[in-house]
Structures are given as structure tokens and as C-alpha cells.
Amino acid sequence: MSNFLIIGGGVIGMMTALQLADAGQHVTVVERGICGQESSWAGGGIVSPLYPWRYAPPISQLSRWSEGAYPTLSLRLLEETGIDPEYRQKGLLYLNVDDAEVALCWARELAKPLERVSAEFVHQKEPMVAAAQESALWMPTLGSVRNPRLGQALRARLLAMPNVVVNEGREVSSFITNGQQVLGVATAQGELRAEKVVVCGGAWTATLLESLTIRLPVRPVKGQMIAYQTPPGLVQRVVLKDGRYIIPRSDGLLLVGSTLEEAGFDKTTDAEALASLKKTAESIVPALSDYSVAYHWAGLRPGSPDGIPFIGALPGWSGVYVNAGHYRNGLVLAPASTHILVDQLLGREALIDPTPFQPTADRLIESIVGA
């Protein structure tokens, strides 16, 4: 029997497994599909909330901690697996920011590099970007990671670790309980038991927890994205305008996203979203009108009240924990949020205050009442 059983093989689940395995624990991961193929794959990979000054302080704390962890994690995974997560720190250009003064005040308080720049500056950095005449904002320290390859690297590392067992294509049907203690899970292929169970099911977390009579306010929020294949270097930095973004990859792939849709678990794409995303892309980089869309896809974010995830032991039960509800910032917050939970699981001194994220009974009730 493993020390820990992790439900969900996304970035949150895999990083949790990696940290536990690094600490010498025996870990089992159970994933209904292939690890890293849901929202962890579908997002853009910006290692920051889109407008970080608009988030509550607990989210800012997690994002700052995670931002500092990604360069080391990416280099580690490249050396261990040969798969490059392509961490790139080339900064972010913000166009049309209507609360620039708030952003600048936030940056000064945190000693975060952020400055107001001219259209000429934008043109020097990104000649293909259409900058408005009014000033833009420039954050030189912001990075991005190629999230599908991050998922591949995490999966490859876990598969190579002798104290980790990865079960893919195995869907959890129910929890095994004795009184108020969770002992493991049941699947069509048999039972899996562990000393502690960690639920990292992303948008599916609330559904998984229903059998424990826990109403976790986490819901699927669909996001559609498109990508163009362009010559490498057409755009080199992340550019954000009116809540949407362009993210360049080293091989010239340009990601454009994303929509926000309350559509349940539907992941279909549609022509309306395609047209809207194309319009956004061409407003930022007019030259994209000369290219056709190479890819169009959708993913499901785990939406939660105020985007604040639930991290910790579930009330009313023994032996079961959760790490879910990161909304648009799962990859952004993954290193910090998994570290918070692993500290709790192993009884270590907390490096980050876990209080704002605990799934206490009071917080669950408040979330439901406020929904």
C-alpha cells in the first residue's frame, strides 16, 4: 500500500507526486486519461495571473513564490528527462490597461519591475505588434512555459521514479471508507488503497467529492484557444490586450486566448469563438491576417469563488485532502500550492501560510451561500 494516493494526473497532481516522491514517500497516481492532457495541456503557460494586481493578496503570494520556482524546475526536468519545458523569461507587454496607476502602485509595494512605456518602446521590442498611441506597461521579469511539454516532462520523471506508480486510463468510481475515514478508491480495474488520499481532479473535483457529501464549489469553465504557425521570431514576448493574449513559442507557434464560457463539461469548439479569437490576434499582430489558424481547441478550468483554490484536509473526514479550484491560474500557482499541501501532508513547517486556502466547513458554507 502506498503512503499517498493522488487522484488526478494534471500539473497539480503530478507536482504533488514529485514533491512527495522527492521526500522518500511511496506514491500512486490514478488518472482517468493520460497524465497532463486536460486543462494542464490546454492553457497558455504564462507564469503569472494575467493582471496580477487585480487578485487578492493570497493569490499574489502564491504566484510570486511559483514564479521563482519555475526556472529551477524547468532546468531540473530537462536534465532528468531530456524534455524541455521551454521556460522563457522575455517579459510581458500590457496594452490598453485602464487601471495602470493601480498596477504601478501594486508593483512599487512589492518591488516588482513594472513601468509605463511608449508606443515607440513597444515597437522596438515587438515590431509586429500594433501598439496604441497611449502608453503601455512593461513587466520584464515575466516568464512562460510550454505547458504541454511541462506535462510530458513531469509524467516522464514520475514514470522513472521507483517509488511512484502511475495508473492511467483508470477512472475513480467511488471512495473506500470506514466510518469517517477514507481508505482509498474503487475503479473498474480494482481498488487502490493508501494511508492518505489527495484529490487533484481539476474541474471534476466537485463531482468526485459528491459521494463524500462534500459540496466543493468548483465548476468547469470552458476556454477556447487558437494557434498560428508562423516563422520563429515573428513575436518573441507575451502580449496582453483587453484580457486576451498572444504567447510565442520558440518554434514560431503563436497561441491566442482565450474565451470564458459557462458550458458545463462541454469541450466542443465553435466558429463564433474562432472568429472572435482571430479578431483579437489580428488586432494585436496585424500580420497574422496573412496566416491561417493551425489549431483550435478547448479546455475546462476549475472555476472557484474569487479564484482562490481549496488546499488542505477536507472537513468531516480523515485521510482525504484536496488541491483544486485554481480557475485560470492552475499552472501559475502549481509549485506553491502543491508545496503548501505537501508541507501539511508531511507535517513540515509551512513555508507559505496555508490559512486562506484551507477547505474549512465555514469556507465551504460561505462559498455555497455566496454562489
TrEMBL record:
One GO CC term, this protein: cytoplasm
GO molecular function: flavin adenine dinucleotide binding; glycine oxidase activity
Lineage: superkingdom: Bacteria
Matching InterPro entries: FAD-dep_OxRdtase (IPR006076), FAD/NAD-bd_sf (IPR036188), Gly_oxidase_ThiO (IPR012727)
SUPFAM superfamilies assigned to the protein according to its UniProt record, in alphabetical order: FAD-linked reductases, C-terminal domain (SSF54373), FAD/NAD(P)-binding domain (SSF51905)
UniProt-recorded name of the protein: Glycine oxidase ThiO
One Pfam family of this chain: DAO
Catalytic activity, EC: 1.4.3.19
Entry keyword annotation includes Endoplasmic reticulum: no
Family annotation (Gene3D superfamilies): D-Amino Acid Oxidase, subunit A, domain 2, FAD/NAD(P)-binding domain
One Gene Ontology term from the biological process aspect of the record: thiamine biosynthetic process
Domain spans labelled FAD dependent oxidoreductase: 5-343
Class of this enzyme: oxidoreductase
Keywords of the record: Oxidoreductase, Thiamine biosynthesis
Metabolic or biological pathway: Cofactor biosynthesis; thiamine diphosphate biosynthesis
